[in-house]
Design a protein that fits this description.
This protein is α/β, with parallel strands linked by helices and 241 residues long. It has 8 helices and 7 strands; from the N terminus they run αβαβαββαβαβαβαα. It has a 7-stranded parallel beta sheet with strand order 4-3-2-1-5-6-7, with helices on both faces. 34% of the residues are buried.
Length: 241
């Protein structure tokens, strides 16, 4: 009786070793992004991370809103961290660049959309999203989130998850432009909270404020009486992000 044999196509030894070596060296590249980011950003506190769409042109209301809030934050003593690209990121960088404090751009290498804007006092470029995301949250005293797409939602929900699970200390999470976020927040309330997927009090992690001046006031109010630096237990959390 003839018995069929199943054949597996093994990777030649030399090729397999080469792939393993590439993966190992890749770890050093990832480490270097964390080291470089930490070295460049350790002195920028207090800072606020601002997020929003790369697809917004200058003159758009969201662009002007981002530029205004970034300028106010910069003049109030906050470094402003953005993704370093166009759209809302450019507006945030521009507002901070013309203010009194540092404009920080955490750029990402992408096949499309991303190009660095010229309004950056400190400019870092990342290959890995996860290393970049750690820098956004590690050095931020607050998040200000303007209308955006998947990337903006990713940064928002990542930070909410870290705060909810106590992997990060609590800090202001402010959404700007209430009309844009209303449907999402209604869904959070009517589906996630109502069906027990999150606790009702988790919704309190989010503030919705449209006026740039009130955004600045809300951040100062949160830190009133404690200072902007991480408390000892928060510092430990940041070390273990």
């Amino acid at each position: 009786m003839n018995q069929e044999k199943s054949h597996t196509h093994a990777v030649p030894l030399a090729a397999g070793a080469s792939l393993t070596a590439r993966e190992s060296w890749r770890m050093f590249g990832i480490m270097s992004e964390f080291v470089e980011g930490t070295e460049h950003l350790s002195a920028i506190r207090p800072a606020v991370s601002i997020f929003g769409s790369a697809r917004i042109a200058p003159g758009h209301p969201y662009y002007e809103q981002a530029e205004r809030v970034a300028r106010l934050l910069s003049d109030a003593g906050f470094s402003v961290i953005s993704g370093g690209g166009p759209g809302v990121m450019e507006a945030a960088s521009k507002g901070a660049f013309h203010g009194k404090s540092a404009s920080v751009g955490l750029n990402i290498q992408l096949p499309e959309e991303q190009h660095s804007n010229p309004y950056q006092d400190i400019s870092l470029t990342f290959r890995h999203f996860f290393a970049r995301k750690v820098m956004f949250i590690k050095f931020a005293a607050a998040y200000v989130v303007l209308p955006g797409g998947f990337g903006t939602l990713d940064e928002l929900t990542e930070a909410l998850t870290l705060i909810q699970t106590h992997k990060s200390g609590r800090f202001p999470m402010i959404l700007m432009n209430a009309a844009y976020w209303r449907g999402l927040l209604d869904w959070f309330r009517e589906r996630l909270a109502a069906e027990g997927m999150i606790a009702a009090e988790d919704l309190d992690l989010i503030q919705v404020i449209d006026e740039p001046e009130k955004v600045v006031d809300a951040i100062f109010k949160h830190y009133e009486g404690r200072g902007f630096g991480p408390l000892p237990h928060e510092h430990e959390l940041l070390l273990n992000l």
